[in-house]
Amino acid sequence: MQRIKLIFTIFLIITFTSIIIGCNQAEGINRLGSNRSEIETGDLEAMPNNNQAIVSAHRLATEAGFEILGAGGTAADAAVAVAAVLTVVEPFFSSALGGGTWALYYEAAAGEVTSLDGVGPVGSNASVEDYAEKGGLDGMHQAVVPGAWDGWMLWLQEYGRLDLGEVLAPAIEIGREGFTVTQSLELWLDRQSQLIAERPDTAEIYMPEGRLLRQGDILYQHDLADTFEVLAEAYEEEIDQGREQAIQAARDYFYRGPLAEAIVDFSDTHGGYLTLEDFHGFEASIVEPISIQYNEEIKVFQNPPNSQGITQLIALNILKDDNLSQLGPDNADAIHLQVEALKLAFSDRYYHVGDPELTDVPVEELLSDEHARQQRQRIDMETVMEWPIEDGLAEGMNNTTTFHIVDGDGNGAAVTTSLGAQFLVIGDTGIHINNRMRMISVEEDNPNQLTPGYKVRHTSNPYLALRDGSLYILGGNTGVDNQPQGQMQQFIHIVEFGLSAQEAIDRPRFATTAFPEGTFPYEYENTLELEEGFPQEAIDELSLKGHEVIVGGAYGSANMIVVDEDDIQVGAEIRDESYGEVKESR
Length: 586
Known about the structure:
It is built from 22 helices and 19 strands.
């Protein structure tokens, strides 16, 4: 950390000349200016009673978000604060510095929804041959360029009001003063105990006295707090030149300065694929989301490919004319319909979804009503589809966290940000690096095939729904392939079955495995897995239809916010330490 601080001044002299900054500003404006999704504005009044709501995977993160809203920040400012605190207290699931982020933002005053693409590409030194040999192992070779930080800086620039130091202050304080190890953190420390013990930089944090920290112990993240602080210092050094230039300084310090150098040095030493050129050339972007019209009132938004978010939309599009509300959440036919629709949606993901810069992703066709009708006709109420499932267009052509915020002005942020629980810390930076390469394919002609410089099909995909043009649902469900499945169930529970936000989160979940899973080595099992809590009658009926039912297990962590006509609800995951709250805005 001291080495990073010492070269900070030299870095500023080299980097922040007026010519370079002028170019960076111009490029930032181009990326932000024309990538919005226009919607019917409807009623754009503030939230009922000007209420604010936040739900996240940890009470400290939720409280930090409210602290930022109370200081006059927007949902975007609060989102960066929540992400930074989760980086400190939930290091097994996400990192604002070492991970990647897909997110959706609803700007109430403009009546617009945008998508944040904060995920980075495969490193330049990667190859199919090398990765195929060690894809099943943990290590630096699993890391792609971390894109989250640049994405968060874009949100601050476009939608934020507060200074970076103010937004990062809660994370810095918690990292320095320590926090109590939760049950979930202890669980992940136990799971990764051997890897942690083998990595000196990681062991220094999680085994400070030669033993693994346990629930109730105090965990400190001193190096991570120092790194957040030097990024805030980079911002402050340039604030006299304007907020946009100061944000650019914090971005450049990470991607074109000491932190990029530290990560690449570590990558070179430990068999990774990342280069300085990969960092220098990376920029996150704000892009147009994809969407479907679920009914006359409700429009559902998702993140575009390379995100897998289209999977949820395809499934909902297939189901939207089935009137599931007449069946109920425990009805075997309702479950069967949802499961079969998901199988078809995941087959579309397998055959067609990758980095659109590398492969032609037929988004318009996949989300068309005609494709939805054709796919629905493939569902038989008395039989079960199994993988391999034919391409529906052929004839015509847990390592994540999710949080959501609504501010007093009616702006909304739906976020799914991911790291991967490999507990690999980059030297004395405190940065935990991602393992997103697990989601890449080594198959020939696969739309998600490993290609240096292009992006992995990213599993993160929060969703956002508007009703009559106003904010309605912000939701997410973690767990790789469980994400679109759990999110579809959330939405159906609210819209079709009339449950509250918390009831929708509390409901037992199901997951199909009748498709190649999204992580190496892409296996499939053709099973229907049900969480404990479904009635035996439904289980028996599903088995009679041909489902190979397995009862038990857990299917990700879910959080959501529902904005109704006269109130606002949070649904916080009861299976872990998630915490949500609604407060009256000041």
